Amino acid sequence: APVLAIETSTRVCSAALQCGGRLTGRTRTGVGIHASGLPSMVRELFEQAGIAAGDLGAVLLAGGPGSYTGLRIGVSFVKGLLLPVPRAALHAAGSLPMMAIGAWLKMGLAPGAGVGGEALNEEGLTGQESSGSRNRGPVRVHATIDARRQHLYSWCGEFASDGRVDEVFPAAVRPLEQIEQGLRPGDVVCGTGWERLEGLDRRVHPTFGESAIRAETLLRAFAEPVWKTWFMSCKPSDFVPDYLGGYGAPPCG
């Protein structure tokens, strides 16, 4: 059955559909774009695939932390979409781990591929120009979302060559200084707001900005056994976004 994925935790509004072995996505970026952009993108995906909401088998959702408005719009849309489709399941994952997986995939890696493929960061540096991109062994990825003032929502995970992820720092709101102290040479940084980190040497820390934030990543992650465990099955009517980070309490009510 078709699976829809939605990511609205930042100013990036993204939707993707897996249908009949084909993955298609739509992404728009901007302030205030979610309310009008999300419904139109999902409608385009459904029309292109020739399906309706009632054909869905599941919806994947980036459930936070992040923008209060973006998350609220995304969750409200999903609840309205699934209300008449009781057989469709809802699976939510933390926005920050999904961004980290997106960055890891953009480095040309995939579960089982091993580390050492050429990376391409936001400045166009390849693996030969960017230390850390050709490391052998685990790669630490820091995912961030701008929390304004002197803070970021942040999460860090260490990716093994087969894609397995060990959480290093759980999702939380952290001062910029604390995040800076946790950076090591070769660590990858992705998401939004990381530009404010002092001492971030992009020749030492490969970086991925909003390009790492895509709904397609949720579909890729859900299809991989090593990443599917990051999702939680939720009852749509009871789902509560994780506005502040960490899923310290179950997000499903």
Compose a concise summary of this entry.
With 253 residues, the protein is α/β, with parallel strands linked by helices. Helix content is 25%, strand content 27%.
Protein model, in words:
25% of the residues lie in helices and 27% in strands. It is of the alpha/beta class. The strands form 2 sheets. A 6-stranded mixed β-sheet has the order 3-2-1-4-5-11, sandwiched between helices. The chain has a 5-stranded mixed β-sheet with strand order 8-7-6-9-10. Helix 1 packs parallel to helix 2. The C terminus is likely disordered.
Secondary structure layout:
Blueprint: E1 3-7, E2 12-19, E3 22-29, H1 34-49, E4 58-62, H2 68-82, E5 89-93, H3 95-106, E6 139-146, E7 151-159, E8 165-175, H4 176-181, E9 188-191, E10 207-208, H5 215-223, H6 225-228, E11 231-234
Parallel strand pairs: 1-4, 4-5, 6-9, 9-10
Antiparallel strand pairs: 1-2, 2-3, 5-11, 6-7, 7-8
Helix pairs in contact: 1-2
